Amino acid sequence: MRLVIAPLAALVVLGAATACGEDEASSADPSALEGTPWVLASGVDVQGWEDVAPSAMFAEGMVSGSTGCNRFRSSYSVDGDTLELGEIAMTAMACPPPADAVEREYVGALESVRAWRAEGDELVLLDGDRADLLTYRAATPVGSWQATAFLQGDAVSSLVARTEITASFAEDGSLSGSAGCNTYRTTYTTDRGGIEIEAPAATKKACAEPEEIMEQEAAFLTALPTAARYEVAGPTLSLLTAEGTIVATFTRAPEQ
Questions:
Q1: What's the pLDDT score for residue 212?
Q2: Beta-ladder partners of 145
Q3: CA–CA separation, 121 vs 197, rounded Å?
Q4: Which residues contact 1 (CB under 8 A, 6 or more apart)?
Q5: Phi and psi dihedrals of 8, rounded to 5?
Q6: Using CA atoms, how far apart are residues 225 and 35, in angstroms rounded to an integer?
Q7: Per-residue b/e over 77-88, b at no fewer than 16 CB within 10 Å?
Q8: What residue spans define the domains of the chain?
Q9: In CATH terms, is domain 143-252 a member of 2.40.128.270?
Q10: CATH code of domain 12-138
């Protein structure tokens, strides 16, 4: 039986994380903060946090991402180098260790954010004393991934049992992998969280088993070029349409 993934669960609102920005002039450019998918590089002191690394994406007055277990979102306002977050809302999934401890520390740090600065491909969020709280790096899809679900028709569904779909995003802009039966190859480009994937070319082998493998393969190869955005959260890569609909989700492949 395949799992059909429902929309995000209702969000649980946490305490407000408001701040009074300082009245000092700043030349900070909000475009350095906004529109880039960020993944945490430091700021959480929990053993094993890298395996569930939280993320954040600032765009159009809303910040969203992963706490290491749950999804979160909040409004924000930026004035120079001051940054004010609104109420933080999260999904309510129970988190096993170390994700539960990572989530507590990460959300606690977000509630203390009062300022920001950008340094190249890094983003640093600061407290009211301008001390560093959270440091992020720009996320990238580069690496090897295994598909966990993708858009098939009008629903996002898990894979047919006993099948595997992979994707390897190379630094040179090439993308290749297995579509379940055949191998495929294409190219991709990224720009501040946006992604464009060309229509893939695949080998022509026919596989009889398991049942529905060829239909699944065709659906995956059709879905890939519809991706317009990407997000990376811990060991998970999500490809999304321009409207935010899931195209495909992946988990990082084990190292060989």
A1: 94
A2: 167, 252
A3: 23
A4: none
A5: -50, 145
A6: 21
A7: ebebbbbbbbeb
A8: 12-138, 143-252
A9: yes
A10: 2.40.128.270
Output the tens digit of pLDDT for each of the chain's 256 residues.
Answer: 444 444 444 455 554 444 444 333 334 788 899 989 999 999 999 999 998 999 999 999 999 999 998 989 999 999 999 999 999 999 999 989 999 999 999 999 999 999 999 988 899 999 999 999 999 999 999 999 999 999 998 899 999 999 999 999 999 999 999 999 999 999 999 998 899 999 999 999 999 999 999 999 999 999 999 999 999 887 899 999 998 899 999 999 987 6
3-state secondary structure of 167: strand
SS3 245: coil
DSSP 174-186: EEEEE-SSSEEEE
DSSP-based three-state secondary structure for 153: coil
How far apart CA 161 and CA 28 sit, in angstroms, is 50
Helix/strand/coil (H, E, C) string of 54-72?
A: CEEEEECCEEEEECCCCEE
Asked whether the domain spanning 143-252 has the same topology as the one spanning 12-138, the reply is yes
Question: If residue 104 lies in a helix (H) or strand (E), which one and from where to where?
Answer: helix 99-110
Q: Could you tell me if residue 192 is left (phi over 0), alpha (psi between -120 and 50 degrees) or otherwise beta?
A: left
